[in-house]
Amino acid sequence: MSQFIWAFIIGGLICVMGQILMDVFKLTPAHTMCTLVVTGAILGGLGLYEPLVKFAGAGASVPISSFGNSLVKGALQEAEKNGIIGVLTGIFEVTSAGISSAIIFGFIGALLFKPKG
């Protein structure tokens, strides 16, 4: 039960940070998302994001900051195996399923629903 509470708290704190970036620093949603992705990538590169995921579960793995962590994680894993070219292939290998599904479901949604306008 406490894992659910921590997931809620950590996920909520990540969202609060994003809201602060938009409200206080007047960043656009795009700038806020990029900032959170880069923050997740930096924390992942320093080895600090994985312990957060183990502690908070979905509270840390669902927000956009986890995408940055995934990019770095994939790049580092493939770089160990294949050298510098692995940095590029690792990024695509780890994130391709999520990006592909977003494109496919977005396309299906566009076919099924009529936009208001």
SS content category = mainly alpha
Q: Helix and strand string, N-terminal first? A: HHHHHH
Coarse morphology: globular
The tally of beta strands, per DSSP, is: 0
Q: Radius of gyration, rounded?
A: 16 Å
Query: Overall pLDDT, averaged?
Result: 94
Q: Portion of residues in helices?
A: over 70%
User: How many structural domains?
Assistant: 1
Low-confidence stretches: none
- Number of helices in the DSSP assignment: 6
Largest sheet: none
**Alpha carbon gap, first and last residue:** 44 Å
Strand content: under 5%
Describe it for me?
This protein has 117 residues and is mainly α. It has one domain. 84% of the residues lie in helices and 0% in strands. The longest helix has 29 residues. The protein is globular. The termini are far apart. Pfam families: SpoVAC_SpoVAEB (PF03862). This is Stage V sporulation protein AE. Keywords: Membrane, Transmembrane, Transmembrane helix.
Helices, strands, pairings?
Blueprint: H1 2-23, H2 29-45, H3 49-56, H4 58-61, H5 65-82, H6 84-112
Characteristic terms for this protein:
117 residues; mainly alpha; 6 helices; 0% strand; transmembrane helix; Spore_V_AE; membrane; transmembrane; Stage V sporulation protein AE
Compact description:
With 117 residues, this protein is an all-alpha fold. Helix content is 84%, strand content 0%. The protein has one domain.
